[in-house]
Amino acid sequence: MSVLLRTSGLRKRFGELRAVDNVSLELHEGILTAIIGPNGAGKTTLINLLSGALTPDEGRIEFLGEEITHLPAHLRVRRGLVRSFQIMNIFPRLSVEENVLVPVLMRLRRDRHVWGPVSRCSDALAEVERVLQAVGLWEMRNHPAGALSHGDKRRLELGIAIASRPVLCLLDEPCSGTNPVERRGVLALVQKLAREGQTTFVIVEHDMDVVFSLAQRIVVMSRGQILADGTPSEIRDNADVRAIYLGEVQDS
Ligand SMILES: Nc1ncnc2c1ncn2[C@@H]1O[C@H](COP(=O)(O)OP(=O)(O)O)[C@@H](O)[C@H]1O
Ligand SMILES: [Mg+2]
To answer: For a disulfide at 173, which of 86, 162, 212, 246, Cβ 3.0-4.6 Å?
Structure first.
């Protein structure tokens, strides 16, 4: 099982607050990993550090065997490390197709065509179709992204994330704001994409039923640290985890 990403001793403070506190973690190829934990546990901050949106105060991040601790986010994307956001991150006035075309063109290193006539790039269009078919939005390709339902916007975000054919894709609450039906659809989609095997996914998600049915590995964060790390059944039986979620032990 090869290690795609490795952190050691990662720390990020906001003033006195230790948002991420000495996190050492390995993410393995082909293993759908969920990161869970109470609000404020540091999940988004960790994703921000991994994706390059934030710089750690201490520690090191390696991706595919090379140090990327201080590499800017866009260069991480180029190496195959992408993320989606807890808050929606699409271009609402562009069509569904155009939203996916932008990262496809970037991958094809044809950046000069990004704003040119779309018909010039048949490779890119074939790739856009592949992505939109994969996320179930091909029929909606000409709609403005802003007009989609919330669930379909989330599908589009997934499409944007996978359009660059990443090695590792970090999804921060990809279902936030969706209703239960949409949520199941989006999560089934993540599972399908994960099984296709081109990309390894890490998902931050707070719905426990979903996490336990979806993930092959669960990392539990609490107060910036990793409290537990294991298979769903190991995590289900972990007394510390139950304590946080059931509120049996109050924070000291
Ligand atoms: N930019 C920031 N400035 C100050 N505090 C922040 C910032 N981002 C996050 N925090 C704080 O860091 C802690 C961890 O936040 P976050 O990583 O968003 O948690 P989670 O995603 O697990 O809910 C929280 O207490 C939050 O208020
Ligand atoms: Mg968060």
So the answer is: 86
